[in-house]
Amino acid sequence: MNIDEFDARIRAVPNGGVTSAQGFMAAGVHAGFRKDPKRLDMALLVADEVCPVAGAFTQNRFCAAPVTVSRAHLGGVGYGMARGVVVNSGNANAATGGAGIAAAHETCDIASQVLGCEPEQVLVSSTGVIGQILDIEPFEEGIPAAADALSRAGGSDAALAIMTTDTHPKEYAVTYESQAAGYLGSTFTVGGCCKGSGMIMPNMATMIALITTDAPVRPETLHGLLRSAVDQTFNRVTVDSDTSTNDTCIMFASGKAAPMLDPIDEGSDAYQELERAIYVVCEALTRGIAADGEGSTKLVTVTVSGAATPQDADTAARAVANSPLVKTAVAGHDCNWGRVAAALGKCGVAFNQEDVDIDIMDIPVCRGGLTVPFDEDEALRRFEAPEIVIAADLGAGDAQATVWTCDFTHDYISINADYRS
Hey, which residues are catalytic here? Predict the structure, then answer.
């Protein structure tokens, strides 16, 4: 498949989100996890019927109770069949021991009774403060209320309900008409929503992300598609180099857009189309997380090319993206390429400094490891853009990687110093 040709055919869904794909409804309600009665704090995403689902979760050893339970409901392999997912904000249900596990299981029991499915066909996710016991009472009233409010238009409320320190909801969806053999003329949609603003450097997803598609896909195939997208997007965003206890990405496939067609096979042209569409949605959500980093004013895209291996490229890009000195330079509109060079040099990747080229906002600032004179006033002008692009070529190979981050401002400290208060 020619990616450029496919990208020309793919279309963003206006105001699209997690319920843009056929076969899904959602709702967001105030269940009582937060004190403010006007703030939505519980989301419910439901498929019309039990369907394939896949998940990717944190690798933090202090993983939360809902992560443990959802992993188990996916058979320990990351995929299976499910009807829906319940997400609460305001309490992470992490580091809560047996009581937390019991609360997560009871949440699934309540939802299964309301939805008419098995408890194992419900997934759960939580986000918020770590170490506080999760009260089950808000679920007892909130889940039935959310079920009553389920609709195709409810995706936006669900996106609001899962937020913590986010300044706005993050939603995106795309649609495309397949040109693959066996699916010619079928129109498929991929949509999603996510939350994430701080404690972001996922090792297996983002803070919370919910993705859906109406393409026909087997559970194990869906898992491969999700893992591919997660590795290239959510696993390449960093706000502050911290990995949450609750990172969760869940994807459902209803098959409603082509109910009479066979499931899409791995490696087929239809698979490649769907894989690209999922990537586009996840990339948009990833960029939204980075741009909404706590206290941030800029989205920062770091691309490292010319690395000896893909791992080297990823390591080097992360080193630059996580550097407090680079991030504060961006906040100060300082085109200080020396900080980029220093971050590259300390990361452990092999290269020769005399082979390195660095550009900031398309301005050549370093060539062959040496400074290049540039117009400081022009650099200041370009720093007014909402996205700052840093590119480095190590001159050591052909591998490339991109990582998304944001700048560091005084507000980041204020937000996190006052988080529990």
Answer: 206
The beta-strand segments (E) located in 261-415 are 299-307, 357-360, 363-367, 370-371, 387-393, 399-406
One-letter amino acid at 120 equals E
CB 374 within 8 A of CB 360: no
Q: How far is CA 6 from CA 10, 271, 274, in A?
A: 6, 13, 10
Distance between CA atoms of residues 407 and 299, nearest Å: 7
pTM across the whole model: 0.87
Counting every residue written for the chain, the total comes to 421
Distance CA 252, CA 236 (A): 22
User: What distance, in Å, lies between the first and last C-alpha atoms of the chain?
Assistant: 52
DSSP lists the bridge partners of residue 151 as 26
For residue 21, what are the CA distances in angstroms to 133, 324, 330?
Answer: 35, 40, 38
What's the pLDDT tens digit per position in 100-137? Answer: 999 999 999 999 999 999 999 999 999 988 899 999 99
* DSSP output for 202-265: -SSS-SEEEEEE-S-B-HHHHHHHHHHHHHHTGGGB-SSS---S--EEEEEE--TTSTTSPPBP
Could you read off the pLDDT of 31-54 as tens digits, one per residue? 999 999 999 999 999 999 999 999
Token pair 């992490």: residue: 94
Q: Can you tell me the distance from the alpha carbon of 166 to that of 160, in angstroms, rounded to the nearest whole number?
A: 9
Secondary structure class of 192 (helix, strand, coil) = strand
Q: At what angle do helices 337-346 and 324-331 cross, to 10 degrees?
A: 160
Closest C-alpha to 337, from 379, 382, 397, 295:
379
- Which phi and psi angles does 363 have, rounded to 5°? -100, 120
Of 17, 15, 12, the closest CA to residue 159 belongs to 17
The CA-CA-CA angle for residues 365, 366, 370, to 5°, reads: 135
For residues 176 and 32, is the Cβ–Cβ distance under 8 A?
Answer: no
Q: How far is CA 229 from the centre of its chain?
A: 10
